[in-house]
């Protein structure tokens, strides 16, 4: 069945605690005894709480569409995403630490007035690290991260016609149950990420009380991404001036754009060696020169920014109206 009441204050592990990692949870879903839940909800919780991101056995008997639906929303735990790999976003990291990490370490302190918030929304343009943060939290907290897409929180979604009836019912039921949990003493932390916050309805906003804007990377953050990616491969030979030039040229690039830029630039030396007639099968690593500013300048012609000024304005406005302002 569903995991028992948490042994650490308000924290109720969504994962069955036979793995020994009691209390290490990101999405605290639960808070009612098994008996209080009907079958649908119980199934729902179990689906969401697959302990290792793998589909639970029960799923195999359900319709393929539903399986797809649910597995799309359980985010894989990704050991490759660590806090240290996330450029910038100091404020967001600090908030997450306060809301998720500290309460796990000191449930005795995080009670009463200090009981952690129940919903966190990361919003902002695509490719800025929202998913990375989610995965990093999940890794840190050894929990399954339930990724709530904007569409599953909009009123449009709840009324959607095309969706398979049982899938719709399951999710609606889940949301209703969550409403119920809100009023009790138990805590639920939902972490949502979206690049279309405008589509969230009032109910979803109410559930996600802390709404953090995850903006495009600053110039320093862009420099850091370039350096970090190239250094990992032992390819970093750029001067400070080169880096500053790259930063000037990449105003408006997202983190994901920067990654694609580095990828393309790192192909420069390889392409050049091949142009000089070296066979790919014969190519030695020593035959390739380091990645240069010129490689980045060439790559800039291929990799263009993916977020428009217009879109940025929309996020800023939503932040002013609904977002956390610090
Ligand atoms: P989204 O905000 O759309 O969820 P992701 O977190 O999936 O974006 O980022 C996509 C990719 O872009 C990441 O895997 C990473 O390589 C790169 N990236 C985006 N933001 C950052 C960042 N702040 N620091 C380092 N890499 C980033």
UniProtKB/TrEMBL annotation:
Residue stretches making up the AAA+ ATPase domain: 116-218
First-to-last residue of the parent protein present: 300 to 625 of 626
Location of the region described as Disordered in the Swiss-Prot/TrEMBL record: 11-34
Protein name, entry field: AAA+ ATPase domain-containing protein
Family of this protein: Belongs to the AAA ATPase family.
Keyword vocabulary terms for this entry: ATP-binding, Nucleotide-binding
Classification of source organism: Eukaryota, Viridiplantae, Streptophyta, Embryophyta, Tracheophyta
GO MF term (any one): ATP binding
């Amino acid at each position: 069945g569903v995991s028992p009441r948490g042994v650490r204050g308000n924290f109720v592990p969504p994962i069955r605690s036979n793995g020994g990692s009691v209390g290490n949870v990101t999405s605290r879903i639960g808070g009612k005894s098994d008996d209080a839940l009907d079958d649908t909800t119980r199934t729902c919780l179990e689906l969401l709480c697959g302990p290792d991101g793998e589909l639970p056995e029960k799923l195999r008997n359900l319709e393929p569409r539903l399986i797809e639906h649910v597995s799309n929303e359980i985010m894989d735990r990704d050991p490759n995403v660590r806090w240290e790999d996330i450029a910038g976003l100091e404020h967001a990291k600090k908030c997450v630490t306060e809301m998720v990490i500290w309460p796990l370490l000191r449930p005795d302190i995080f009670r009463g007035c200090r009981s952690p918030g129940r919903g966190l929304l990361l919003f902002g343009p695509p490719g800025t690290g929202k998913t990375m943060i989610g995965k990093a939290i999940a890794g840190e907290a050894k929990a399954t991260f339930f990724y709530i897409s904007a569409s599953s929180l909009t009123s449009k979604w709840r009324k959607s016609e095309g969706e398979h009836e049982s899938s719709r019912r399951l999710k609606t039921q889940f949301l209703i149950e969550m409403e119920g949990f809100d009023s009790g003493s138990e805590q639920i932390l939902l972490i949502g990420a979206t690049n279309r916050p405008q589509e969230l309805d009032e109910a979803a906003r109410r559930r996600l009380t802390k709404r953090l804007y995850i903006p495009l990377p600053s110039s320093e953050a862009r420099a850091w991404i370039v350096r970090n990616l190239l250094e990992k491969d032992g390819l970093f030979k750029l001067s400070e001036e080169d880096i500053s030039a790259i930063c000037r040229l990449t105003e408006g690039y997202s983190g994901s754009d920067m990654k694609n830029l580095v990828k393309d630039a790192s192909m420069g030396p390889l392409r050049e060696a091949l142009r000089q007639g070296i066979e790919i099968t014969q190519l030695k690593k020593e035959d390739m020169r380091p990645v240069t500013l010129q490689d980045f300048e060439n790559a800039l012609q291929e990799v263009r920014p993916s977020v428009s000024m217009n879109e940025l304005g929309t996020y800023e406005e939503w932040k002013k109206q609904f977002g956390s302002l610090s």
